[in-house]
Amino acid sequence: MDLYAALTVAWRGLLANKMRSILTMLGIIIGVAAVIIMISIGQGASAQVTSRIASMGSNLLMVMPAASFGAVRGAGGQVNSLTLDDARAIGELPLVQNVAPEARSQVTASFGSRTWTTTVNGTTAGLQAIKGWQMTAGAFFSNDDVDRAALVAVLGPTVVANLFPSGFNPIGASITLNNLQFTVIGVLPSQGGGFGGADQDDVIYIPITTAQRRFLGQGVVPNSVRMINVQAQDTTSLTAVQEEITSLLRQRHHLGANQDDDFRIQNMTAVLDTVAAATGSMTLLLAGIAAVSLLVGGIGIMNIMLVSVTERTREIGIRMAVGATRGAILTQFLVEAMILSLVGGLIGVAGGIIGSKVVAMLAKWPTVLNPMAILLAMGFAALVGIFFGYYPARKAANADPIEALRFE
Amino acid sequence: MAHPVIQLKGVTRVYSPGSNQVWALRGINLEINRGEMVAIMGASGSGKSTLMHILGCLDRPSSGQYLFANQDVTRMTPDRLARVRNREIGFIFQSFNLLSHTPAWENVCLPMIYAGIPRPVMIRKAMAMLARVGLKGREEHLPNQLSGGQQQRVAIARALVNEPSIILADEPTGALDTRTSIEIMALLQQLHQEKGLTIVIVTHEPDIAAYCERLVRIRDGQIIEDRPVPEPRLAARELAALPVEED
């Protein structure tokens, strides 16, 4: 019996009981589709996070305060070891292109009768260059504004949407932040959601000097900043810059040789690696869960094939009587199981592709279709078919023709 | 000159469920020549079904020797036996044993699939064979769309299609009414006479056995009678004498 004959016989067998064949396939269809959708969701998330981090710039460093022995702590337990002067000193370093310290506080902004509670972030003009912002309207404040501690504000799109009537041009408008009058001079471009769903557009930027004087109160350490963004001239000089900053800050903070750093420097590449690893394991987890459903689909095939073999005992007897060898019977049932899993797998791939598009559309979650994942799911489905089809097929092949012919 | 197609020498078949052995066949010696039409008769439990299974290479003797066309079947592997069944033996069963949900022509194709016959040849032969047994125009019918007699004709076509050395019929008319039984016997007699087909019919009905040329009677696993039938009934003639019936 050649392959074509085996396929025809198996195909006929499946057609003879369409409903059962379709239901059996359903398990594989769902399993394969689930694997593909889950992997594309995971990889979509990974791609999104990676590109967002990459867009922040790969030549960026973030200097943050860190606990060290004797460090001064603020009320929230945060460390206030970095100051605006530290930032200025870093800006003097030869390989550094831009520096922007940040200090933030919660404020209530109001315009007319509207109020909105948001984050006010004090920084310097360098932040616009570091973030590469193209302003939606107006301009970012200048270093001159920082020196003068001017009462000017740059708003994120969320703040604009909540503080002004729609269609209103906010540039030049006078808003109050905690009862202090500010002039709106610019609107930021939208940056979308950040990690953990925080809205990066719900923010007001003001000169850091203004923020320190008006909102941060007289902190334990005057001039303290939350972090310092540093942009190196290029990616290659990153390590050199990191070393320069370390020695500069150690010197400025009068740290002895046996004392730990009271700050830490985060490298965006390192962050990228960490995030990639995290999303990678999330993808793996999702795929694992989906693979379980594929396995269940396989057990479904075995279950139905076993029922089918019992139900078709008489057919097996007839086939054996007219000359089917055990091998031919084994092949027939194995091919039936494989057709079920392969056809189911193909439908599942189609379902998975459509499903991941639907997820992308409905949940606004970018999904990335991975050809490897599709191949993997198909291959796994075929393996499942062979593995779970073999036992019932062998049971059929080992039937005694006389007993099988008597079977009612 | 006799050409034995089947030679059984001291064939026994013992079933041993546990310790108590059951002797289904107790030393059968039987020769059937090419071109014979033999009835094997016996009551239920006489061992005739077991004998049929051994003759049909569905089962192997516990002891003794079975030569099929001078080949020793006794020591053949299951796959070799399957090949013998496929090429040399055509089965006809009481309950027809057609594949349900499968059109008549595909049922006839079944033995040819396992003989590895190319599909176009296979379809041509199946159609010709169905015409031969009087089922022209019903090739696409499913078994449940055919009458009992028609189903048995499909089964006969299936049995004949690989041109076997012998037709083994197990109670071929057991599920049919009298008229249809005579029709089926007429068809078998016709095939026997025209093509010299060797036919072995296992039955417990003396009426059916009377259509054969030789009668082998079996009881308690032994042959108790083996004689020629002096004047076999002629089914075709009886059929002509019957009043015409609406089909």
TrEMBL record, chain A:
Residues 289-401 form the ABC3 transporter permease C-terminal domain. The chain crosses the membrane at residues 21-42, 284-307, 328-354, 374-393. Its main location: membrane. It is an enzyme of class 3 (hydrolase). GO terms for molecular function: ATP binding; hydrolase activity; transmembrane transporter activity. GO terms for cellular component: plasma membrane. Residues 21-247 form the MacB-like periplasmic core domain. Its EC number is 3.6.3.-. It is a multi-pass membrane protein. Pfam families: FtsX (PF02687), MacB_PCD (PF12704). It comes from the Bacteria. Keywords: ATP-binding, Cell membrane, Hydrolase, Membrane, Nucleotide-binding, Transmembrane, Transmembrane helix. PANTHER family: ABC TRANSPORTER PERMEASE YTRF (PTHR30572:SF4), MEMBRANE COMPONENT OF TRANSPORTER-RELATED (PTHR30572). This is Macrolide export ATP-binding/permease protein MacB. It comes from Neomoorella thermoacetica. The gene is macB_2.
UniProtKB/TrEMBL annotation, chain B:
GO terms for molecular function: ATP binding; ATP hydrolysis activity; transmembrane transporter activity. InterPro entries: AAA+_ATPase (IPR003593), ABC_transporter-like_ATP-bd (IPR003439), ABC_transporter-like_CS (IPR017871), ABC_transpr_LolD-like (IPR015854), MacB-like_ATP-bd (IPR017911), P-loop_NTPase (IPR027417). GO terms for cellular component: membrane protein complex; plasma membrane. The keyword Nucleotide-binding applies. SMART domains: AAA. Keywords: ATP-binding, Hydrolase, Nucleotide-binding, Transport. Gene3D superfamilies: P-loop containing nucleotide triphosphate hydrolases. Residues 6-245 form the ABC transporter domain. Transmembrane segments: none annotated. Its EC number is 3.6.3.-. It holds the Pfam family ABC_tran. CDD domains: ABC_MJ0796_LolCDE_FtsE. It comes from the Bacteria. It is an enzyme of class 3 (hydrolase). PANTHER family: ABC TRANSPORTER ABCH.1 (PTHR24220:SF86), IMPORT ATP-BINDING PROTEIN (PTHR24220). This is Macrolide export ATP-binding/permease protein MacB. The lineage of its organism: Bacteria, Bacillati, Bacillota, Clostridia, Neomoorellales.
